[in-house]
Design a protein that fits this description.
With about 160 residues, the protein is mainly α. Helix content is about 70%, strand content about 0%. It has helices spanning about 5-40, 45-70, 70-85, 85-120. Helix 1 runs antiparallel to helix 2 and helix 3 (about 70-85) crosses helix 4.
């Protein structure tokens, strides 16, 4: 594939995805308008209905922008935003990095716990020292998983 073919393919994909994104936003706005109409039927939720309608209008405008704009307009808008607000772009990048690191950390802990539990069920000797158990390990059958002792906390006064 040539660079022009790759560029044309990527441009087409961005157009398809942005149009789909816009349609989804507009569908959400229509749903929000429907909810607002239902809220207007009750006198106590009339203010909430107005708020929902205003939000639906904003969402509809955003969806219309993405649905009807071509790639060049979207890219120009993104470039203008990043030139006008470089700190906002940096903040978004930092926030995205922090969220990604937290996600990876939480999934790694879960994967580690799953792997450790699989190891315990298949081979109870792996990962445990005889000194770390609550019971005399010599009397346990090999198929019984061993429990770890809880570490005692040491305070500043040595207690």
């Amino acid at each position: 594939m040539t660079n022009q073919a790759i560029s044309a393919y990527l441009t087409k994909q961005v157009e398809i995805r942005s149009t789909d994104f816009g349609r989804r936003f507009r569908t959400t706005a229509q749903t929000l308008h429907t909810i607002a109409e239902q809220l207007r039927n009750d006198a106590t939720t009339h203010a909430t209905a107005d708020f929902a309608d205003r939000g639906a209008d904003i969402i509809d405008r955003i969806g219309s922008y993405f649905e009807n704009s071509d790639v060049d307009v979207l890219m120009a808008g993104a470039e203008d935003f990043s030139r006008d607000r470089p700190w906002a772009v940096a903040t978004i990048g930092i926030a995205t990095g922090l969220l990604a690191s937290r996600l990876l950390k939480s999934t790694a802990a879960r994967r580690h716990a799953i792997a450790e539990s699989d190891t315990m069920t298949t081979n109870p000797d792996v990962g445990y020292d005889a000194a770390d158990t609550d019971v005399d390990t010599a009397t346990l059958p090999r198929s019984t998983p061993r429990r770890r002792k809880r570490a005692k906390r040491v305070t500043a006064d040595g207690a």
